[in-house]
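Request:
You are asked to prepare a plain-text protein record giving the amino acid sequence and the backbone structure tokens, at your earliest convenience.
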Amino acid sequence: MVDSKENSAAKAIAITAGFLFATLTAVAFVPATIRAAPPHSTDAGSPESTELEAARTAYRRGFVARNQGRYEEAAALFARGLAIRTAAKACPAADLADAHYALGEALWILARYPEAIAQLERALAVWEAHAARLGKAQPGVALTLGALASLHAEQGRYGAARALARRVVELRRATQEADPEAWLAAQARLAAITRDAGDLAGAEALAQQALASAEGRIEAGDPARFGPTTLLGLLQRDRGASKLARTTLQRALAIAEAGHGTEHPRVATALLNLASVAIGADGDVEPTAAAATAALEQIDRAIAIRRRSFGAAHPFVAAALAQRARAAERAGDVAAGLRDLRAALALAEASLPEDHPMRARLLGALAWRLRGSAPTRALALQRRAADALSRHLRHNLLHGTERERLLLLALARQQLDQTLALTAAVGGTDADALAIHVTLERTGLGLQASRAVLDKLRRAQGREGARALDGVASARAHLAALVTAGPPRSGSAMARWQRERRDASKALEVAEQRLARVAPGDGDRLKSVRAEAIAAALGDDEAAVAWATFTSWRDADAVDPPEGATVDAASAWQLLAVVYRKGTAPTLHRLGALAPVAGQLAKLRAAIVSGRLLQPFATSLHARLIGPLAPRLEGVRRLVLATDGPLATVPFAILGPTPSARLLDIATIRQVGSLRELLTPAQREACGSPVVVADAEFGPARPASPGARPSFASLPGTRAEAEAVVASFATAKPTVLMGPAASEAALLALRRPALLHIASHGYFLPDQGAARLRHDGELDPASAAHLEDPLLRAGIALAGANAAGEAAGRRRRDVDGILTAAEATALDLRGTALVVVSACESGLGEATVGEGVRGLRHALQVAGAASTMLTLWRVDDASTAALMAAFYARLATGVGRGEALRQAQLALARGEIGEGAWRHPRFWAGVVLSGRDGPVELTPCVHAAP
């Protein structure tokens, strides 16, 4: 759980010190399955026999050196033995695989990660080829996969690590009766990696399952129980059950000492975990200076063990020193804490890759502590921390499942907050430059990663990727149908629905894991973004504004927030904006607390929906969001707005100091999830015909009832809207889908339409899960495992949407008349210039900090749409049809998307179109353009679609 009494930056250090390497140390630090001298037979006296015996001698000596903690010597001996075996003409495959593995493991312990991965991957290739030749499984495959999983997790590559760990679990499942210890270790490894990735609930379930599987097979004090017992204790600590955690972790310490002696690395890990409870306890234990002093003794003992085991310069020692720094601060010795933290950072920088998350965390922690005494130094350290984590994210977001990407972003969010809080505390030009850099570099990465993975899979040739994509689409469709249907009222039906929903969620997870295996390789990396490139992408009369939210009291010292304050307290959140103009440097504007803005926004939306007077709220929001930026916006005729958190639902068009000086009156407006979208290369335009979907036959409407599947009334006005849209297509011949043809199946079958217009009902359902969200929609890492994906809760009604029958009884490939955002990601919209969803609330979703809105807008962008036009609230059928007709009439003349929408909205606002009541913003201001601007070519293109 996120600690409500202890700040997040400090929590990050405690986690780093106590468990960053738990996938290695707590589960299987030194695998004991490598043979000291594999007894393969060769002809005595032959050259091959002599060579292999020399290799085995080096191997045996390396094995002894490794067990005695002389890892440099062990690595050299293993390398010598490997060289001999590689040169030999007839080296048995098992010998060669063991040699690669032994060297890889030694390099891993020495924190030479790239070399270690290379050796382990070679070992895996040899083992797999050997297994294929023999036609039966080889234990070395699971062993090597497990080592690779732990090694990737140790570097924060959780997507790749979990995929490998799951393969080990499946392999070990077949041999669990014969080798229960290996089966337990495999389960514990997966649980530990799951915990490190931020999925605490999933990790606890896996840890409990692992311990349950050990009952009756493995004795209570067996060393094999150390890993899952440790993990369970840490999870208890994380959710605030400190007393229970202490008892569990003391049991883990006893297991380690009884099974390995008092000087084993596992004993050091157990001591550090116990100390972490004392210095960072929450919930049912209050941390005290006395407890911190006692923890220092445990930590010092652990440091001594790790130094003897791994050497004084090992990152394991750095992790322990970081924990000692926190304990010293808790005990009141701030100077000792600073000294330990500097020592930890020096070791980490000497032994870990530049983009390792531990380096980033230690850099950030030291920067925060120096913000008052050495602000220039603090900013330099924080810049290095931010850059290290950005590099880490740009690579690792391309691996794993969509949910794992969200978890990784949520875990990384705390350092972005710390960076922005530090720049606010320090102030000055350099601080502003750093804030601008990190807000630009770290937002929109999730959307970019999802789209990059999908694009690469679509371009790839071969059946494996196609099958994986189809499997994910099928699983999402089934789960989406269950979520849309909602829970039944009767007890037996409810139990059945819950069971099927759990099964559907598991099936989707498995399908996404399969998809992740054929996703981009290790060489792929998202691109960095620079402010100069954003400014260069703008026109002379154009400005881009990016808002960012952050918490104000992220404090890595022993200074806790005010009594009763929590991480989701609105008063803790601050707001800033960055303005970009062509030919000038970007400027940062600190806008104060977010709470007043959120309050005024809620009042404004309420006034819009009810049709009441809204100008006071629009004026107030303008004063808070736009007024401070006014000098930088002089002469602007086009605005690109990147919103953050709750600002995603602001109807910017109506903001202004007076009713006659609204933003709509002076500029075209388009929104983007992040400014990095300005640099996304345009895809080759689609050659498919424009497609118009309207007047779907939903079927007989049912009375509304709580928890029931949504029911939709007919929309006859959408037929007239479709006819007006079609009439604007002059030379193009659009495909028109109406009545029963306006179906989900027809939409899913589309291939790269030039333009897509859907006039129907839209919706966004509340979360049926138990996830806790912070006030601005940011994912809480502790509860993200329970988060019901917003893409499952946003959708569009199509033909047959009111059809009777429980969605829970459907098969996975069936369609249910509703296209959810989750299913919309499977649409092929590559090169589609514009997707218009003329439907109520089609633009709503979960406003996730740094990632825009997760709903239909996100899904359509992932699917490939260059731009979208969606709505922020329930819209009127007739006025929306008039607005769309006016928009397309202007678009057909060659006017850009943003200007065409602006002119159409002005026509309604000034009473030039339709009824006088339509002048109220309720009827036109909710339609928002997102993504690219510019004209849309409505005539067929001449090149052939790929």
Q: What stands out?
A: The longest helix spans residues 491-517.
